[in-house]
């Protein structure tokens, strides 16, 4: 039978719910892709929330954007200019768009193709393709984040995999088997993306007048953690009453995002203006997002972004996030520089910080980072 015709409206993800008192139970959550496929008009209550402030969202042509080609070239003046934009963008929004990134467009096309191949399968087909994830938290297809009882659920389907270190997936059936080249393609992309992220971290160190290796030295190629998450936001009949991805910061050093098929959806809070901005994301540009750990390491000179994804009526959207982290057992702290004497952040163990963030999430504003503040 055709894979795409075997779905039913009664497909569910199993979501683990942790209540305030610590008790744990499992909730069956409708698969939003299946709801959208069946053209539902009434969004189930568990996804509804008070009307969104979307009318207050700002649009700007001047969103921070850097050219990697200029940053990597030998033209001193052009490089200085990109370094300034990088530092400024990370300081104001906690993110910058990256053009001329050097990752072949043919590879980006392959990434889109395998992702669409997977999400084009029926629900049962997807489950068969990915196998089970019994021992890895938050990995796998479609599990929702662990949420307190009363919080509305996000309008999203997800697929999360460990990319690095490779041994960490040993024995687990963590990658889709269908499409057959899924893993190979995403790993090739992650390899190129890692070079890009290393270059950005070196550039950032230069922009902040730190030693060039100040950040990348935490990123030993053998031990660093890279997770990949595909976010799929199907069309939603009630965009003002739902959220694709609730406001959050990423528990990373950096996150690299690519998106398709449409450019709207991601919004970010401006640090001082306290207004949501829609990210004007050109085709084929990538987006690099500051996570909480880089905020700590830079002693607040760059800020992790407070961001969210909204839903849209007739449009579907995919994004692929690569989350870059040091090993969970590593300690990080603000990097000493000549001009800093006051440290606003303290030493934390990466894994402890991540656990803290997941424990307190979701929150209405950026509070998890306070755990790492003096
Ligand atoms: O869909 C997007 O653009 C944002 C995704 C995101 O914030 C995440 O995966 O952490
Ligand atoms: Fe995020």
Automatic annotation (TrEMBL):
The keyword Oxidoreductase applies. Residues 224-326 form the Fe2OG dioxygenase domain. Keywords: Dioxygenase, Iron, Metal-binding, Oxidoreductase. The keyword Transferase does not apply. One of its GO terms (molecular function) is dioxygenase activity. It comes from the Eukaryota. InterPro entries: DIOX_N, IPNS-like_FE2OG_OXY, IPNS-like_sf, Oxoglu/Fe-dep_dioxygenase_dom, Plant_2OG-oxidoreductases. PROSITE patterns: FE2OG_OXY. Pfam families: 2OG-FeII_Oxy, DIOX_N. PANTHER family: OXOGLUTARATE/IRON-DEPENDENT DIOXYGENASE. Belongs to the iron/ascorbate-dependent oxidoreductase family. This is 2-oxoglutarate-dependent dioxygenase 11 isoform X1.
